[in-house]
Amino acid sequence: MQATANTADADVSEKQRSREGKYLTFVLADEEYGIGILKVKEIIGLMPITPVPKTPSHVKGVINLRGKVIPVVDLRLKFGMSGAQSTERTCIIVVEISFCGNKISMGIVVDSVSEVLNIRAVEIEDTSSFGTKLDTDYILGMAKSGQGVKILLDIDKVVNSGEIHHLAA
Q1: What is the 3-class SS of the chain, one letter each residue?
Q2: Separation CA 157–CA 118 (nearest Å)
Q3: 118-142 burial: b if 16+ Cβ within 10 Å, else e
Q4: Strand pairing of 102-110 and 68-74?
Q5: How far apart are CA 107 and CA 152, in angstroms?
Q6: Long-range CB contacts (< 8 A, 24+ apart) of 57-62?
Q7: Are 152 and 142 in contact (CB under 8 A)?
Q8: 130: β partners
Q9: Neighbouring C-alpha atoms within 13 Å toward the C-beta of 93
Q10: Angle at Cα 153 formed by Cα 47 and Cα 114, nearest 5°?
Q11: CB–CB of 49/92 below 8 Å?
């Protein structure tokens, strides 16, 4: 059995190996997603969000987190899903994204947080080609987990640079 595992590990590309690691998994509309744990700063309960005029509909607004103003994005709306009523499991994941060499804290609203998983390189497949019109640059890969698949996100690319500039201004 050990020889089989080593052979499988040898077939792993450098790209797959770079995506290996711990991921915080969460749910949006019955789909499971993951973000690299090193990007996650904290998980907080839903709190009052102050709307900001003239922002895209998926930008919910800003929160005051211990004296720091942080923009909040609803990932359901960002991904073109229908909005959902908040529940006791709805929460905000505070992530740190990279933009123009700077680190920016941002909140993302998710339906619920699941768990932290250690995902091995052999469990990660490249994103399928869905055609040329669909932008999947923000997807790091698909992680096979049990009978399901978790979509691993590159949180730095989920919010595009134009939106980050608008929020950071």
Answers
A1: CHHHHHHHHHCCCHHHHHHCEEEEEEEECCEEEEEEHHHEEEEEECCCCECCCCCCCCEEEEEEECCEEEEEEEHHHHCCCCCCCCCCCCEEEEEEEEECCEEEEEEEEECEEEEEEEECHHHEECCCCCCCCCCCCCEEEEEEECCEEEEEECHHHHCCHHHHHHHHC
A2: 22
A3: ebbbbbbeeeeeeeeeeeeebbbbb
A4: parallel
A5: 17
A6: 59/163, 59/167, 60/109
A7: yes
A8: none
A9: 28
A10: 55
A11: no
In our burial notation (b when 16+ CB lie closer than 10 A, e otherwise), range 82-92 reads eeeeeeeeebb
The Cα–Cα gap between 72 and 163 comes to 12
Question: Cβ(119)–Cβ(152) under 8 Å?
Answer: yes
Other C-beta atoms lying within 10 Å of the C-beta of residue 19: 21
Query: pLDDT digit string (tens) for 18-77?
Result: 788 999 999 999 899 999 999 999 999 999 999 999 888 899 999 999 999 999 999 999
* Residue pLDDT, tens place only, 12-28: 566 656 788 999 999 99
Count of beta carbons in the 10 Å neighbourhood of residue 23: 28
In 3D, which of 132, 130, 124, 112 has the Cα closest to residue 153? 124
Closest CA to 34 of 147, 130, 114: 114
